[in-house]
Amino acid sequence: DTGVSQNPRHKITKRGQNVTFRCDPISEHNRLYWYRQTLGQGPEFLTYFQNEAQLEKSRLLSDRFSAERPKGSFSTLEIQRTEQGDSAMYLCASSSQTGVYEQYFGPGTRLTVT
Amino acid sequence: GNSVTQMEGPVTLSEEAFLTINCTYTATGYPSLFWYVQYPGEGLQLLLKATKADDKGSNKGFEATYRKETTSFHLEKGSVQVSDSAVYFCALTPYGQNFVFGPGTRLSVLP
Fold first, then answer.
1. Per CB distance under 8 Å, which residues of A are interface residues toward B?
2. Comparing C-alpha atoms, which of B8, B9, B4 is closest to residue B107?
3. In the sheet that A65-68 helps form, which strands lie side by side, from edge to edge?
4. What does the alpha-carbon distance between residue A62 and residue B45 come to, in Å, rounded to a whole number?
5. Which residue from B91, B105, B97, B100 is spatially nearest to B12, judged by alpha carbons?
6. B22 falls in which pLDDT band (50, 70, 90)?
């Protein structure tokens, strides 16, 4: 069990560019979550997968954001036409279906949009 | 909608002092409740949880009791240590698909 991993750890991009982040959950976990966290705030839920199905998506999530989990293993989060307001830490978490919703978080990807 | 409110920090205590961090929530039904901790330079870690009314979650000397009548899940520890310095987040989920986190409370423990 190597824990949840995220890549890259840091990303600096110019406004208007597209970025993609990757999350590798704990191998036996079928639930995967994406969050956004800004300085001084708690994580804000973005979206949730059970296996390869995206079952929940925040109403606050812009159409510029899209997430996939094509084979029910790793997941990607893409942000198109980035804006300065997208600068944040993007967190991924996973959990098993048998646990009581106990999430294990990755270290996050810090995005800076200049 | 669902929401979590936490006491504002930072909270500064001397070592061995008693700790309470207040958390109240708004939710329909019976959500599961959690405390997560983020130590400096590290990712979020689950500290404790409770899934139904009157359940008490406990871990590493920390405790929290699920109080449905007051919609609260206050975090307590009888004697804090310098190593407890961290940011603490209260969170809930109605059924495991959508989690709501509070803003976090920063705790600093002085030797």
1. 31, 33, 35, 40-45, 48, 50, 55-56, 58, 91, 93, 95, 100-108
2. B9
3. A5-7, A19-24, A75-79, A65-68
4. 28
5. B105
6. very high
Q: What number of other Cβ atoms are within 10 A of residue A83's Cβ?
A: 12
- Predicted confidence band at A31 (pLDDT cuts at 50, 70, 90)? very high
Which one, of A57, A48, A37, A105, lies nearest residue B96 by Cα? A48
Interchain proximity A43–B101, CB inside 8 Å: yes
Check CB contact under 8 Å for B44 and A105.
Answer: yes
**Looking at this protein, which amino acid is placed at residue A40?**
G
CA dist B51 and B64 (Å) reads: 12
Asked if pLDDT for residue A1 goes beyond 60, the answer is no
CB pairs < 8 Å spanning A and B? 57
CB contact under 8 A, A102 and B43: no
Q: Give residue ranges of B with CB < 8 Å to any A CB.
A: 4, 32, 34, 36, 42-46, 49, 51, 89, 91, 93, 96-104
pLDDT, one tens digit per residue, over A79-110 is: 999 999 999 999 999 998 776 678 899 999 99
